[in-house]
């Protein structure tokens, strides 16, 4: 039975007698308000110079002053437009299609603007390529309102005008051209056809200029292998929705691997759809060192150190191609490789192998395997163009800057002085150049070393055209007038080339000349994307790979292997000053506001590294000293179940840096270890002094020890057994008769009639959810959820309305759990076996479960509110009237799902919480349709009532019925994986009504009898 | 009184004017009718022309003297053809007025044009004596009133003095005759009323209870109106009269507050909406309210404020580009935690603006008519029926719900309009 599997969130929970876990399970608010400390301390009471009378005087005075102040209302001014733009109507949102291409994240998106201010990023569902925004893209709208942005160009540290900058840089360029000294234009990957032309014109005018693309986190080896095999530089694209079997060797396909954005296709193949009575879904094998989102989603996750991954890939190649491989694998790996190869063979041309190993040979093997399989999943005719770095070129540039042999350097949208391991030397090198210009949004390490800083606009203030993959184009348009005195790089380059055209005109010219082919510019700008059937001639030229196989098979670990990775929230770190992303809990570790060394439990034991939970449930981790080559860092440790033994992981994109406010200067800069742009390094790790205080939401909001939370089964059981076997409704006994808990017979509550009008339900498919967290950020943006900062998160006071719970399970496989349990005989055996079953496995299975307010039809929170601030609406939403709330917190105590959040402080206009809500610029992102809550008020998910009400009003205004799909919440709209479906179950034709009738459907804690309006679909694993 | 007399004067003026015009038209040899001309002028020409002032087109006073009549006929009927043909005069005018061609009026007959020209040439005769005499009459009236009032006051004063004198004399007579005046007789000392009251404990208790209750009542009343700004009537940067616009000129509310139809905000109209009309209405010629100082001149000055704000150069009839947005004082302020949507009420609910905003068409200065309290909202939701006719959205829900409640028409409350979350999120 699925429900009897033991899930645990933290190793501490497995300790049966842990008083800490008991305490956390019993108490919603882990930390008391320290009243006793103060009152019991007689000395401090006596020392106080404030007498009782004084105190009463203060109270009296402040009450009187407050009430007097309240009597006089402020005078509010309203300033209408002088000439109102036609398309802006105050109070009505406008949507514009645009595209993000910041060098790390690429995609076509929609921007919601209110009164001319961009306030939210939405997916562009019509787009065929990269139309789903991830958490970082959702948060990028806040990065525009960043107070740390450059407000204008600078020259030698002082503000200058753009005219002066053009003159001075132009003069220097001419001088350098005259002397023939080399200048390098080091840019992010643009993937922009017009920019390519502009750069070509520039290098034609200045032949001494060389353009080099630089990716902060590169995929150069894969591009090299692709170039060898197909003659064109690019990255093979994959459509995982077609996949039948996926074998990934070290590729985090649901993360940022090769530009990311693969999760929506992946999820499509992961939902078991019944065809002709039998359900099918893809089978996913993941061989990896760090625990990633892909590993969490996989049916078979195999921990393997980076060197073992190389061996495994060689063996997979050998088994598929019939080549003998000299070395042998460990038994555990050998069985899994066999199973994986069998699955690949069974899936035929629906099979695919991918790899994240940064080795040209390994990438060549992958291409060879997929070619041999005839994989439909891999698309080589239209490769991705969003990672263009060529490692060797970059290496030459870096060396020449450090050595001082270069004449000039122009950097655009990158910060190599921070993201290169030799960053300091690079910055020193820049200072010695004849000309250095940094196009940047921030005064970062590279910009401050350069002579000229050309302030770049945010992408939401810019024009742009992109070709994400061959034949798939996107247009970006400004959604607001530039906030500061900024200029796009392309505009500046046009000027330096002596071209008076603007970038916008250049894009239009280029498109009508060579891309549009008769299609309307306005139509494409409106849609945001444009697809042609242009492809490359992809003829696979095979080469001799035997040496590559031998090399991979012979790979051996030379010590502890460090895998550097990018976090779901922070990515390459260019949005480090974005408080939404800093407070975003990492999907796997649930740690906010930090990066850390992930270590396997076995290695941690061996090295004496510890994770401990302190009295209030917060996590502390010991420090470890990590050394790679000459560089060493002291990093806090998180013990990560599933981490391959002999490997450690560390996230890039953190650390003290320039252009980032103090609160966000956290973690360590792992780029110090990023030698040769390789994510895998050999490191030595040793215990260091002291403990680090994490802000981890891991142990928070445990569900009070009640089980029945995550339901899970296997595809085989799902296909062969009845629903009652794998998704049984809990039974209760009434008059000694077993009855289903959902039956009205056993209900204490009177049922409300919800058959008329709308009845909103949200379905969450645990199979499609990858834990990517786009919904969490979308919820933040839509509902003005405050950021509380690291210390408050550590006190369990995070305000996320929507959290994604991550559960580990005990046994390595689901079958393992079942067999162990079934083999129990007798009471004595059951005691020992159940005890043993609770022990942590080295490689647990992972399940993600997004939890927000469940909008119970029989809501426990409503009955305990003394002031009726929490009440129920007929449409199924549980309402929260903030202005009525007096902050007793009874509701949070009585909520079985722990989804209510209390405003312990005033989080806006408060210097103690100096995030975006504390400055005029940051507050521009607030949604004007949702109130900003004040101190002492309980808040929670409203099921985006402002959005459902808007949809209803739109229908009323048009005098029409509402079509299925119109109702959306912020989270369901943000989920490009199809894991969240929102709608009206009274509309019998709707998708959500269909899902409610699905066999996989269950409610969270059904036995409590709350009858929630949020439902979950049982997770099915294809093992 | 005074106002009525002035109106009467204006009426007399009009009659005299009409008489004079009729007289002059009988004198006019060509039989052109300036009264008919005025009508035609207002219907066809007034959008771009004024009599004494440049507007989009030139001032038309005495235009017939400047141009040949035949030329005017063909110009008015089809000006652009004349410009094309290269007529020197025509081209000169066209160039002077920013190369904007005048609308062609092929439907106007020569007689019509004659009438219009008669109107534009018409000079009203010098003010007639009656208008001049009206004022002194009114002045005389008030003068005589003062005299009468003064005389009456004097008479009363004399009476009072006389009475005092008589009283004194009588007292003297009485004392001389040895009569004891009753007021001087001593009465036995009585317990003062307050002591009697203080000793009656029941009475004290009752009055204390009464006092407490009544003070609680008033304190509650006082506190409940804290933050309720009913009647709030701030001074605005431009004296905009809804009475003139919505009342006298009957401009539909949603012409200016157009976003009330689609948005949660009714919107303060942007200044370009004002200029739709005020490009041509540079001065006020309507009724005046002299008691409050709202003269024609006053209103005209307010229009000039609009021009300054929007950057309209009246002289050259073009925008200067120098704008100064108007900072209106917001009158209706709902707290942040309340969501109110105008479109829902105005467009879907078909509620008259006046239901909440009061008789705006009578307001010289706009003020908050309704209390805008939650009780006030809720009350209306309880009493108002949902307008469901011809709205497909409601058809299903309404049928089912009205069957459930056994009513024919549903109130907003029955539709769920009392739920907290409908307005608070």
SS-derived structural category of chain B: mainly alpha
Tell me the radius of gyration of chain A.
29 Å
Residues in β-strands, percent of chain B: under 5%
Low-confidence stretches of chain A: 700-707
Proportion of β residues of chain A?
Answer: 15-25%
CATH architecture of one domain in chain A: 2-Layer Sandwich
Shape of chain B: flat
CATH class of one domain in chain A: Alpha Beta
Q: What descriptors fit this protein?
A:
heterodimer, A: 1023 residues, Alpha-Beta Plaits, Dimethylsulfoxide Reductase, domain 2, Barwin-like endoglucanases, six-stranded mixed β-barrel, 30% helix, B: 425 residues, mainly alpha, Cytochrome Bc1 Complex, Chain D, domain 2, 4 domains, 19 helices
Outline the structure in words:
In chain A, 54% of the residues are buried. In chain A, 30% of the residues lie in helices and 21% in strands. Chain A has a seven-stranded mixed β-sheet with strand order 7-6-20-19-18-8-9, with helices on both faces. A six-stranded mixed β-barrel of chain A has the order 24-30-26-29-28-31. A four-stranded parallel β-sheet of chain A has the order 15-14-11-16. Among the domains of chain A are: 2-17 and 702-1021, Alpha-Beta Plaits (2-Layer Sandwich); 235-379, Dimethylsulfoxide Reductase, domain 2 (3-Layer(aba) Sandwich), CATH 3.40.228.10; 557-696, Barwin-like endoglucanases. Chain A has 1023 residues and is of the alpha/beta class. Chain A has 34 helices and 46 strands. The longest helix of chain A has 20 residues, at 52-71. Chain B is mostly helical and 425 residues long. Chain B folds into four domains: 32-121, Cytochrome c-like domain (Cytochrome Bc1 Complex, Chain D, domain 2); 197-224; 242-378, no CATH class; 379-425, no CATH class. Chain B is 55% helix and 1% strand. Chain B contains 19 helices and three strands. Chain B has helices at residues 2-27, 34-45, 63-66, 69-77, 79-85, 88-96, 110-121, 129-176, 193-199, 201-224, 242-248, 253-256, 271-278, 296-310, 342-348, 353-357, 374-383, 392-405, 413-417, and strands at 312-313, 318-319, 328-329. In chain B, strands 1-2 form a two-stranded antiparallel sheet. In chain B, strand 1 (312-313) and strand 2 form a beta hairpin. In chain B, helix 1 (2-27) runs antiparallel to helix 8. Chain B starts with a helix and ends in an 8-residue tail after the last helix. Classes of the chains: A alpha/beta (1023), B mainly alpha (425).
């Amino acid at each position: 039975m699925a429900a009897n599997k033991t899930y645990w969130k933290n190793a501490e929970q497995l300790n049966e007698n842990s008083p800490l876990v008991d305490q956390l399970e019993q108490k919603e608010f882990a930390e008391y308000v320290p009243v006793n400390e103060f009152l019991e301390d007689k000395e401090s009471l006596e020392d106080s110079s404030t007498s009782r009378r004084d105190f009463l005087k203060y109270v009296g005075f402040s009450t009187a002053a407050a009430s007097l102040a309240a009597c006089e209302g402020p005078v509010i001014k309203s300033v209408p437009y002088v000439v109102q733009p036609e398309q802006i109507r105050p109070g009505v949102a406008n949507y514009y299609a645009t595209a993000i291409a910041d060098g790390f994240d690429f995609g076509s998106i929609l921007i919601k603007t209110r009164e001319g201010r961009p306030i939210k990023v939405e997916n562009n569902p019509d787009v065929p390529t990269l139309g789903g925004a991830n958490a970082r893209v959702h948060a990028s709208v806040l990065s525009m309102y960043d107070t740390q942005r450059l407000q204008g160009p600078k020259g030698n540290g002082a503000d200058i005008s753009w005219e002066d900058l053009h003159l001075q840089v132009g003069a220097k360029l001419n001088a350098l051209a005259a002397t023939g000294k080399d200048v390098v234009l080091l840019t992010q990957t643009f993937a922009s056809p017009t920019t390519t032309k502009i750069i070509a014109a520039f290098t034609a005018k200045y032949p001494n200029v060389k353009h080099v693309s630089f990716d902060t986190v590169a995929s150069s080896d894969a591009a090299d292998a692709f170039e060898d095999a197909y003659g064109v530089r690019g990255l093979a694209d994959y459509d995982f929705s077609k996949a039948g079997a996926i074998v990934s060797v070290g590729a985090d396909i649901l993360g940022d691997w090769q530009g990311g954005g693969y999760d929506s296709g992946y999820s499509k193949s992961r939902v078991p759809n019944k065809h002709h009575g039998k359900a099918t879904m893809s089978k996913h094998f993941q061989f990896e060192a760090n625990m990633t989102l892909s590993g969490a989603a996989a049916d078979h996750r195999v921990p393997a150190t980076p060197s073992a991954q190389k061996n495994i890939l060689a063996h997979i190649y050998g088994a598929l191609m019939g080549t003998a491989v000299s070395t042998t694998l460990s038994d555990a790996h050998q069985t899994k490789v066999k199973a994986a190869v069998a699955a690949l063979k069974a899936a035929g041309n629906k099979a695919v192998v991918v790899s994240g190993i940064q080795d040209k040979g390994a990438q060549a093997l992958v291409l060879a395997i997929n070619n041999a399989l005839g994989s439909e999943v891999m698309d080589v005719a239209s490769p991705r163009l969003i990672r263009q770095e060529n490692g060797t070129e970059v290496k030459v540039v870096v060396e020449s800057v450090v050595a001082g042999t270069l004449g000039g350097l122009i950097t655009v949208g990158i910060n190599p002085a921070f993201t290169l391991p030799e960053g300091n030397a690079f910055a020193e090198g820049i200072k010695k150049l004849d000309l250095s210009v940094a196009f940047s949004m921030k005064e970062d390490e590279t910009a401050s070393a350069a002579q000229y800083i050309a302030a770049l606009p945010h992408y939401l203030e810019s024009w742009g055209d992109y070709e994400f993959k061959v034949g798939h184009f996107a247009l970006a348009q400004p959604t607001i007038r530039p906030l500061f005195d900024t200029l796009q790089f392309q505009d500046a380059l046009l000027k330096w080339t002596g071209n008076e055209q603007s970038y916008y005109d250049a894009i239009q010219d280029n498109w009508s000349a060579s891309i549009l082919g008769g299609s309307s510019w306005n139509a494409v700008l409106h849609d945001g994307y444009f697809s042609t059937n242009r492809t490359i001639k992809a003829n696979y030229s095979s080469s001799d790979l035997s040496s590559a196989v031998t090399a991979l098979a012979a790979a051996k670990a030379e010590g502890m292997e460090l895998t550097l990775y990018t976090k779901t929230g922070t990515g390459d770190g260019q949005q480090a000053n974005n408080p939404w992303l800093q407070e975003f809990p990492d999907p796997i570790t649930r740690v906010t506001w930090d990066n850390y060394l992930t270590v396997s439990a076995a290695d941690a034991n061996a090295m004496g590294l510890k994770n401990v939970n302190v009295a209030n449930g917060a996590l502390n981790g010991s420090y470890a000293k990590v050394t790679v080559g000459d560089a060493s860092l002291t990093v806090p440790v998180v013990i990560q179940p599933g981490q391959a033994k002999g490997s450690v992981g560390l996230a890039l994109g953190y650390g003290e840096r320039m252009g980032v406010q103090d609160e966000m200067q956290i973690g360590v800069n792992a780029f110090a270890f990023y030698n040769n742009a390789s994510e895998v390094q050999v490191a030595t790790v040793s215990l260091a002094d002291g403990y680090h205080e994490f802000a981890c939401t891991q142990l928070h909001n445990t569900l009070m020890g009640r089980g029945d939370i995550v339901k899970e089964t296997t595809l085989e059981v799902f296909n062969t057994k009845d629903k009652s076997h794998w998704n049984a409704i809990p039974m209760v006994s009434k008059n000694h008769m077993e009855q289903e808990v959902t039956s009205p017979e056993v209900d204490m509550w009177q049922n409300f009639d919800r058959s008329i009008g709308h009845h909103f339900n949200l379905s969450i498919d645990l199979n499609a959810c990858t834990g990517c967290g786009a919904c969490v950020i979308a919820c933040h943006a839509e509902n003005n959820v405050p950021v509380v900062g690291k210390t408050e998160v550590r006190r369990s006071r995070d305000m996320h309305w929507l959290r994604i719970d991550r559960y580990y399970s005990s046994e390595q496989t689901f079958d393992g759990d079942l067999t162990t349990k079934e083999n129990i005989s007798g009471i004595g055996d059951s005691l020992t076996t159940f005890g043993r079953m609770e022990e942590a496995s080295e490689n647990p299975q992972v399940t993600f479960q997004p939890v927000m307010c469940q909008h119970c039809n029989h809501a426990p929170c409503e009955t305990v509110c003394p002031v009726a601030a929490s009440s129920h609406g007929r449409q199924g939403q549980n309402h929260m009237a903030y202005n009525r709330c007096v902050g007793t917190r009874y509701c949070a105590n009585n909520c079985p799902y722990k989804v209510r959040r209390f405003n312990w402080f005033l989080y806006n206009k408060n210097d103690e919480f100096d995030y975006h809500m504390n400055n005029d610029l940051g507050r521009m992102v607030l949604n004007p349709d949702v109130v900003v809550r004040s101190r002492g008020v309980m808040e929670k998910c409203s099921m985006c009532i402002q959005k459902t009400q808007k949809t209803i009003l739109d229908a009323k205004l048009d005098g029409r019925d509402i079509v299925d799909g119109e109702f959306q919440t912020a989270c369901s709209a943000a989920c490009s994986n199809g894991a969240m479906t929102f709608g009206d179950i009274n509309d019998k034709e709707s998708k959500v009504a269909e899902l409610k009738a699905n066999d996989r459907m269950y409610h969270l804690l059904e036995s409590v009898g709350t009858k929630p309006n949020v439902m979950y679909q049982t997770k099915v694993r294809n093992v | 009184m005074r106002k009525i007399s002035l109106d009467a004067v204006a009426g007399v003026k009009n009659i005299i004017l009409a008489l004079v015009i009729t007289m002059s038209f009988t004198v006019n040899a060509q039989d052109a009718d300036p009264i008919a001309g005025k009508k035609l002028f207002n219907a066809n020409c007034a959008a771009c022309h004024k009599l004494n002032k440049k507007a989009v087109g030139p001032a038309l006073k005495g235009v017939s003297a400047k141009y040949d009549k035949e030329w005017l006929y063909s110009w008015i009927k089809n000006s652009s053809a004349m410009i094309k043909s290269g007529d020197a005069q025509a081209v000169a005018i066209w160039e002077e007025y920013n190369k904007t061609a005048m609308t062609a009026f092929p439907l106007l007959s020569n007689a019509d044009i004659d009438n219009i020209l008669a109107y534009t040439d018409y000079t009203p005769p010098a003010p007639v004596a009656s208008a001049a005499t009206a004022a002194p009459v009114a002045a005389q009236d008030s003068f005589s009133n003062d005299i009468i009032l003064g005389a009456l006051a004097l008479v009363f004063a004399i009476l009072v003095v006389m009475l005092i004198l008589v009283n004194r004399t009588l007292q003297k007579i009485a004392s001389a005759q040895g009569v004891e005046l009753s007021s001087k007789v001593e009465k036995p000392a009585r317990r003062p009323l307050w002591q009697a009251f203080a000793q009656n404990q029941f009475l004290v208790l009752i009055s204390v209870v009464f006092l407490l209750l009544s003070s609680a009542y008033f304190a509650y009343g006082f506190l409940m109106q804290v933050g309720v700004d009913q009647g709030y009537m701030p001074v605005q940067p431009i004296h905009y009269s809804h009475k003139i616009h919505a009342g006298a000129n009957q401009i539909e509310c949603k012409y200016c507050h157009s976003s009330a139809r689609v948005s949660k905000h009714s919107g303060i109209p942007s200044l370009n909406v004002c200029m739709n009309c005020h490009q041509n209405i540079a001065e006020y010629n309507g009724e005046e309210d002299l008691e409050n100082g709202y003269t024609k001149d006053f209103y005209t000055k307010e229009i000039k404020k609009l021009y300054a704000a929007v950057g309209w150069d009246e002289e050259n009839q073009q925008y200067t580009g120098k704008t100064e947005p108007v900072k209106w004082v917001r009158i209706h302020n709902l707290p942040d935690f309340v969501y109110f949507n105008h479109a829902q009420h105005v467009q879907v609910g078909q509620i008259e603006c006046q239901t909440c905003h009061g008789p705006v068409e009578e307001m010289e200065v706009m003020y908050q008519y309704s209390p805008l309290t939650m009780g006030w909202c809720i009350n209306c939701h309880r009493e108002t029926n949902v307008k469901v006719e011809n709205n497909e959205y409601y058809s299903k829900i309404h049928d089912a719900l009205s069957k459930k409640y056994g009513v024919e028409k549903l109130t907003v409350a029955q539709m769920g309009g009392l739920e907290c979350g409908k307005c608070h999120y």
